[in-house]
Amino acid sequence: MTRAMHVNLRWFALLLAVFCTVATALAAKPHERREIKTGAYITSISGINAADGSYRIAGYLWFVDPAGLFDPNQSIEIFARNASHELMARIELDGGGVYTALAFNAVVDADFNLHDYPYDRQTLSLIIETTKDLTDLIFVADMHDSAIAATVNAPGWTLSNLRLMTSAKTYTTGFGYRKELPAFSRVTLHIDAQHNVSALIFEKFTGYLVALIITALVFLVPAAELGTRVSMLTSSIFAAVFNRYRLEDSLGFNHVFGLVDQVSLITFAAILSALAFSLYAHQLCQKRTAADVAVLNRRVGLSMALFFAAMLAWAFLRALP
């Protein structure tokens, strides 16, 4: 075999290798991101607790994967204080793909907005995130079949409007091994919760209401009877403080200046104003006639009652739904 033939064979082998590589690349299917249809059916919501900042939710989640590879036991994370789930069904669909369903139960952290408490409106949210990269799969919300069961009853609340919102979450950490910041698909359940309003709108503020009534009655006592007026105002303080502690037990720490704080401020301002005027009127009794002091007492009492009543009405009208 001549040298020229050796050279030709080498070129032929090289061209054959290039051809095989290109053919393999063209024949290979491109990586396709799978869309996982996701839905939810809520069977229980309870323990909505503003003081603890949590609520309990239970129900069913389902996932439809056209490739039939999705395993919810391995591929999802429920963002909750504690959560458990159990596979309930795995069905191969006639049109292709696999349907999987699981039952879940979770206690979820919630950031309650208590500005209008006890007439507040909350959004209860639950996040379900896939453990697979966003390049592998994404969630698609199944709103057609998602619902809240008619039997769901959260005492003191009206629940409505289940919504499923999909989004992508990019983390600011590589979790110790990734070179690029990872992104994952998530679906978030949102449920509207409206605090039921009692026919007696002052139900939660009975102590404050009693304190304000006693404070108003102080102005019916002659200004000269300072001891009686101070005793009545002391009773008002005890009623207001008791109501305040009762509400704090229900609310826990709250950083917003909401309706509870406004009513508390108005009540204590009324009590202190009445106390300050009572001291002034008692001293005035030594300089003016009893009739003059009585007229001033009625006018000041009526003015204070109207002013603080208007402040209370303003606070409640802003908060009531």
Characterization of this structure:
With 321 residues, this protein is α+β, with helices and mostly antiparallel strands. It has two domains: 162 residues, Acetylcholine Binding Protein, Chain: A, CATH 2.70.170; 117 residues, Methane Monooxygenase Hydroxylase, Chain G, domain 1. It contains six helices and ten strands, in the order H-E-E-H-E-E-E-E-E-E-E-E-H-H-H-H. The longest helix has 30 residues. The radius of gyration is 35 Å and the shape is elongated.
Brief descriptors of the model:
321 residues; alpha+beta; Acetylcholine Binding Protein, Chain: A; 2 domains; six-stranded mixed beta sheet; four-stranded antiparallel beta sheet; 6 helices; elongated
Annotation field: number of helices: 6
Q: Gyration radius, to the nearest Å?
A: 35 Å
What number of domains? 2
Low-confidence stretches: 22-30
Number of strand elements: 10
Largest sheet: 6 strands, mixed
Mean pLDDT across all residues, rounded? 88
Kindly report the CATH topology of the largest domain.
Answer: Acetylcholine Binding Protein, Chain: A
Using the 3D structure, state the CATH architecture of the largest domain.
Distorted Sandwich
Structural class estimated from helices and strands? alpha+beta
> What portion of the residues fall into strands of 2 or more residues?
25-35%
